[in-house]
Amino acid sequence: MTEFSSRMQAFRERLAEDGIDVALITDDDNVYYLTGYYDYLHMEFGRPTILAVPRDGDSLLITPTIDLNSARASAQVERIAPWNDGKGNEWREELPGIVKDAVCVAIEPDQMPPVVRTFIDELLDPGRLTSAAAVLAELRMIKSDEELQLARHAGQVGKAMMEAGRAAIADGVPEYEVAIATSQAGTRKAAELLSAHYDDAYMSPNTHFLQIMASGETIINTHRRASTRVMRRGEPVFLCFCGMTNFHRFKLGFDRTFWIGEIADRSQAAIYEVAVASQKAALDALRPGVTAESVHAAYAEVIAGAGYEYPFRCGRATGFSFLEKPQLVTGDATILQPGMVLAVDGSVSVETFRAQVGDSFIVTDNGWEQITDHPKTLDEVIL
């Protein structure tokens, strides 16, 4: 039994337990998680792809004819129903038959494209609809051995990008040169790992997602992209790979703050030290059996105790999606378990500066295993 068929079986068992007759899945990452099908055009080009999973019966992938060959090559489903632009009822053709006799139909309410949701609402009374989101989120929380291998390899790709970015940062260098260096390094490391450990001719090693970085006075812009701005000596530089660390579709969180040559504004050093200390506090609290929000509380206590504003979430679970369950934030009482993969940050923000360090970790039986790695002591981040 393949990894994907095992997931599909587990999902069907949960559907049966919850009294759900059929699930209609449209989220890209959930479709991949259950079938191995990915990189179709989907709604970005106005073309819905829908996975129908009955608790009893054949799974069905409804996908554009333009992507039929890709679906045949990678989708581990019992049946594929291609549809073509402007022909008949397009993707709507199969849906009435799928849900006709179903008493309970599960969808992803917050992820289903509006055009598909509108059609479903026309077919079904609201009382026949329920959510599949919680079931899938719970299934995806604990990673398999295969997923944990992907996580570790994603960490190697992230490390290669961080090292290349660090080496490219210098006085007089425009930010986009750093982005070019990180993309090349990540792609080459991913290609090396794919060739050595995986047999998937369709999986691209190329990094994607624009480089998140900021420098100088733009350091306060958390999710800024690399630009033509020229970096200067004494300035802080922030590099974030939370989008680009995406190996074999597995995502991680990873970021660092650097300075070029020296710290021109020495007040920034003290702020940075608190950020590092806040991540350490979170890691001291991170272990199986504790709640997600307790890790956030340990991190927040260090930041607030140093007199800074109460911080955003400490971190989040990752996997085939950038954001999975649980989140390390106040109000998330999920109990941490071995096999979860979590991005854990330390951060402090003030009006003129922000410092952030972040890494990804696997929760183990006794604590955690770090899967991204780069120096973060103050001396080591002055380039």
Record keyword descriptors for this entry.
five-stranded antiparallel beta sheet; single chain; 383 residues; six-stranded mixed beta sheet; 10 helices; alpha+beta; globular
In brief:
The protein has 383 residues and is an alpha+beta fold. It is built from ten helices and 16 strands.
Instruction: State the secondary-structure class.
Output: alpha+beta
Q: Quickly count the helices.
A: 10
Distance N terminus to C terminus? 50 Å
Low-confidence stretches: none
Strands of the biggest beta sheet: in what spatial order?
4-3-2-1-5-6
The value of Rg in angstroms is 23 Å
Q: Helices and strands, in N-to-C order?
A: HEHEEHEHEHEHHHEEEEEHHEEEEE
The total of beta strands comes to 16
Fraction in helix = 25-40%
Beta-strand content bin: 15-25%
Average of the residue pLDDT scores:
96
User: Largest sheet at a glance?
Assistant: 6 strands, mixed
Shape descriptor: globular
Descriptive report:
With 383 residues, this protein is an alpha+beta fold. Helices cover 35% and strands 19% of the residues. It is built from 10 helices and 16 strands. The protein has helices at residues 3-17, 28-35, 68-74, 95-99, 114-123, 133-141, 145-168, 175-197, 267-285, 292-305; strands at 22-25, 50-54, 60-64, 79-83, 105-107, 129-131, 212-215, 236-240, 246-247, 250-251, 255-259, 315-317, 324-328, 341-349, 354-363, 368-370. The strands form 4 sheets. The chain has a 6-stranded mixed sheet. It has a 5-stranded antiparallel sheet with strand order 13-12-14-15-16. Strands 7-8-11 form a 3-stranded antiparallel sheet, covered by helices on one side. α7 (145-168) packs antiparallel against α8 and α9 (267-285) packs antiparallel against α10 (292-305). The termini are far apart. The model has no long low-confidence stretch (mean pLDDT 96).
